[in-house]
Amino acid sequence: MTHSAAGDAGTATDDGVVYDLDSRCTLEDVERGSRYLATVNGTVDYGVFVDLSEHVSGLVHESNLRGDPAVGDDLVVTLAEIREDGDVGFEAADVDPADVDTVAVRGGDEVGVGDLADRIGDLVHLEGDVVQIKQTAGPTVFSVRDGSGVVPCAAFEAAGVRAHPDVELDDAVRVTGTVETREDAVQLEVDKLVRLRGEAAAEVRDRIDDAVAERAAPADVEPLVDWPALEPLREDLADVARRLRECVLEARPIRLRHHADGDGMCASVPIQLALQRFIATVHEDPEAARHLCKRLPSKAPFYEMEDVTRDLNFALEDRTRHGQRLPLLFMVDNGSTEEDVPAYRALDQYDVPILVVDHHHPDPEAVEPFVAEHVNPYLHGEDYRVTTGMLCVELARMIDPSITGELDHVPAVAGLSDRSQADAMDEYIALAEAAGYDEADLRDVGEALDYAAHWLRYDAGDSLIGDVLNVDCDDEAHHRELVDFLATRARRDVAAQLEDAEPHVDHERLDNGAHLYRLDVEHHARRFTYPAPGKTTGELHDRKVDATGDPVITIGYGPDFAVLRSDGVRLDIPTMVGELSEEFDGAGVSGGGHLVVGSIKFVPGMREPVVEALVEKMADAELDEALRSTLVREE
Ligand code: MN
Question: Are residues 321 and 399 in the same domain?
Answer without folding.
Answer: yes
